[in-house]
Design a protein that fits this description.
With 502 residues, this protein is of the alpha+beta class. Helix content is 31%, strand content 25%. Among the domains are: 3-206, Vaccinia Virus protein VP39 (Rossmann fold), CATH 3.40.50.150; 297-405, no CATH class. The protein has a 9-stranded mixed sheet. A 4-stranded antiparallel sheet has the order 11-24-20-22. A 4-stranded mixed sheet has the order 12-17-16-23. The longest helix is centred in the first third of the chain and has 19 residues, at 82-100. Bound molecules: S-adenosylmethionine. S-adenosylmethionine (SAM) binds at residues 6-11, 37, 39-41, 44-45, 78-81, 84, 114-116, 131-132, 134. Residues 6-11, 37, 39-41, 44-45, 78-81, 84, 114-116, 131-132, 134 line the site of S-adenosylmethionine.
Length: 502
C-alpha cells in the first residue's frame, strides 16, 4: 500500500454499506442508475455495488446479456495506481463469476487514470458518487498535482489535503438529482483552512447526513479521525441529520439547522449536550484563562535521562540514576498524568535552566561544564541518545525537548492529569515542585482565589463538559486539554471569594 503518496487506505465493508444505504443505493431503481467511485482502489465500494446490482437484476429476472449491459454501462471507477486497478478488475470479475456462475467477459468502465483530469469527461453524468477518496496532505503531493489543484479547484486555496478536491470533483460529476457519499477525514469540520468549504456547504444547504466518528478509529492501523458526509444539491431542507457512533452503531443524535451553524467550527453533539454547552456559556463572558495560566508540564523527550530518584547524598552531590551529580541542579518533579498526591511519587529532574531577568534560559554549555561538571559529564555520556530526540528548533542537545512549562514552573500550582475517567482529581504543589506529562495551573495574579478553579474542577458541569468535548481513549478515558480548561466559562469576579454557584 502506498500510504503517504497515494492515500491508500481500505474501507471496511460495514462503512461501504452504511454509505450505500445513506445515499439510497438500493432497490429496483439502481438498475438504471449510474454510479462512480473516483478513487476505487481494489474495489471496496464497487464490489458491494455490483453485488447489490446483480441481486436486483436477478430479482427482476434480467437475462445474462441484460446484466452484462447494465454492468458495462452503469458502473464506473477511476484508480491511478496500476496494481490497485488490476486488483479491482480481478475482484469484480470474481464476484460476477460467483454470482452468475459464468465468465461474462465484461468491458468494465474502470479507468486506470488520474481523477483530477478524467472527471471532466463526465460532468453532470452520475446519479451517485461514492467512495473513500485519497487523503494526502498537500506537501506530500507532487508539483504538477499541486499546480492543477491551485488552478482548477475552487477550494484549493489554503487547502491542505487532496480529499477536498475529490469533494469538489464529485460535486461536478453529479447530475441534478445526484447524491454523493464519502468517508473522509473529519478535519474539514474543524480546521480553519476549510472555512470556505464549510460556508459553501452551508450556503447550498448541501449536507443531508453527517456522521462524525470523532475519536473512534475506523481504519485499522491508521489514526485519521473520519466522518461520513452525504450530499445533494436538490433537496432544500433547513437541517441535516447528525449521527455518531453510539455503542458501536451509527445513530442519529441530533438535527442541525443550517442557520445555527458556526462557520468557525462544526463540532456537534446530541441535542441535550449542545444545549448544555450553550447554557454554560450564556451567562458569562469570562473564561478560566482570564485568571489562570493552564499549561502542559515539561516534555524532556527522554524522561529516563532527566528524571530519577536520589539514592544517596554526599555533601553537594547526590547519587542520581547511578551517577553522582550536583544536587543544586535537581528539582522535585511529579508525573502529572498519574500523580495521586503521595510524597512517595515525587522524583527529581535535572533542570538545566537559569533565570536571566524574568525569563529562564538554558544554562550555557560552558557554564554547565564549569559549574555542574558532574551533571555535564552525566549528560555527555547520554549525548548520543539525547541527540536522537526531535527537539524544538534552536534548542541545545542537553535541554528538554520542548520548552513548555519552563517559564512558569516556579509557581505554586495545581496539577491534573490529561485523562479523565469518572472523576477529575487535582492536587496542589509548591513552587519548587515541577510537573512533567500532565497539566498544571497557576494564578495569573496573586490575589485570585484558588477556589475559582477548584470549584470548576470538582463540578459535575465541568466533568460533563469534558465528556462532551474531550476525545475518547481506550478504557473509557477522555482526554483533557489545556485549551478546554482555558476556554471554560467562569463568572465575573465581584468578590474574589465564593465566586461560583453553578
Ligand atoms: C483511501 S484509498 C480508497 C480505496 C478504496 N476506494 C477503498 O475504499 O478501499 C484512495 C485511493 O485513491 C487512489 N488515488 C490517489 N490519487 C488518485 C487520483 N488522483 N486519481 C485516482 N485515484 C487516486 C489511491 O491509489 C487509492 O487507491
Amino acid at each position: 500500500m502506498k500510504h503517504k503518496t497515494l492515500g491508500q487506505v481500505y474501507t471496511p465493508e460495514w462503512i461501504v454499506n452504511e454509505i450505500l444505504d445513506s445515499v439510497n443505493y438500493k432497490g429496483i431503481k439502481i438498475l438504471n442508475k449510474k454510479i462512480i467511485d473516483p478513487a476505487c482502489g481494489d474495489g471496496a465500494f464497487l464490489k458491494i455495488i455490483i453485488d447489490r446490482l446483480i441481486d436486483e437484476a436477478i430479482k427482476e429476472k434480467k437475462t445474462i446479456e441484460e446484466i452484462k449491459h447494465i454492468l458495462e454501462n452503469n458502473i464506473y471507477g477511476i484508480e491511478i495506481d496500476k496494481g490497485e486497478y488490476f486488483k479491482c478488475l480481478d475482484n469484480l470479475n470474481k464476484i460476477v463469476k460467483v454470482k452468475l456462475n459464468t465468465d461474462l467477459n465484461i468491458s468494465w468502465r474502470i479507468f486506470n487514470e488520474n481523477s483530477l483530469f478524467k472527471y471532466k469527461e463526465y460532468i453532470g453524468f452520475f446519479d451517485f458518487v461514492v467512495g473513500n477518496p485519497p487523503y494526502i496532505r498537500i506537501h506530500n503531493l507532487d508539483k504538477d498535482t499541486r499546480k492543477i489543484l491551485k488552478k482548477e479547484f475552487m477550494f484549493s486555496q489554503g487547502t491542505i489535503d487532496i480529499y477536498l478536491s475529490f469533494f469538489e470533483l464529485g460535486f461536478k460529476l453529479l447530475n441534478k438529482k445526484g447524491i454523493l457519499g464519502y468517508i473522509t477525514p473529519n478535519s474539514y469540520l474543524h480546521n480553519s483552512s476549510y472555512i470556505n468549504f464549510r460556508k459553501y456547504l452551508k450556503n447550498n444547504k448541501a449536507v443531508k447526513i453527517l456522521v462524525d466518528f470523532k475519536a473512534n478509529k475506523i481504519f485499522k492501523n491508521f489514526s485519521t479521525y473520519t466522518a461520513i458526509t452525504i450530499i445533494n444539491f436538490f433537496e432544500d431542507k433547513d437541517y441535516f441529520e447528525y449521527k455518531e457512533l453510539v455503542n458501536g452503531k451509527i445513530q442519529k443524535v441530533n438535527e442541525i439547522k443550517y442557520k445555527d451553524l458556526n462557520d468557525k467550527d462544526w463540532s456537534f453533539a446530541s441535542k441535550e449536550d449542545m444545549n448544555f454547552i450553550k447554557k454554560l456559556y450564556s451567562n458569562t463572558n469570562k473564561k478560566v484563562s482570564d485568571f489562570f495560566d493552564v499549561q502542559y508540564g515539561f516534555a524532556t523527550l527522554r524522561d529516563n535521562i532527566f528524571i530519577g530518584d536520589i539514592e544517596e547524598e554526599k555533601e553537594d552531590l547526590v547519587l542520581f540514576n547511578k551517577h553522582w551529580i550536583e544536587k543544586k541542579i535537581l528539582y522535585k518533579v511529579v508525573k502529572g498524568s498519574t500523580y495521586k498526591g503521595k510524597s512517595s511519587e515525587i522524583k527529581y529532574i535535572i533542570f538545566p535552566y537559569k533565570k536571566l531577568g524574568n525569563r529562564f534560559i538554558p544554562i550555557p554549555e560552558e557554564e554547565l561544564k564549569t559549574n555542574y561538571p558532574n551533571t555535564y559529564n552525566y549528560l555527555l555520556k547520554n549525548k548520543e541518545e539525547l541527540l536522537k530526540r526531535d527537539i524544538d528548533k534552536g534548542a541545545s542537545w542537553y535541554e528538554f525537548g520542548r520548552s513548555q512549562g519552563i517559564q512558569t514552573c516556579h509557581n505554586e500550582k495545581i496539577v491534573i492529569s490529561t485523562l479523565m475517567k469518572d472523576d477529575i482529581k487535582y492536587y496542589f504543589l509548591d513552587k519548587d515542585t515541577f510537573v512533567y506529562s500532565g497539566i498544571f495551573i497557576i494564578k495569573k495574579k496573586k490575589e485570585y482565589d484558588w477556589k475559582i478553579i477548584e470549584t470548576i474542577l470538582s463540578s459535575e458541569e465541568f466533568k460533563r463538559y469534558i465528556k462532551i468535548t474531550g476525545k475518547d481513549f481506550s478504557g473509557g478515558y477522555k482526554s483533557i486539554t489545556t485549551k478546554q480548561i482555558k476556554n471554560y466559562p467562569t463568572k465575573e469576579l465581584n468578590n474574589q471569594k465564593n465566586l461560583f454557584n453553578y
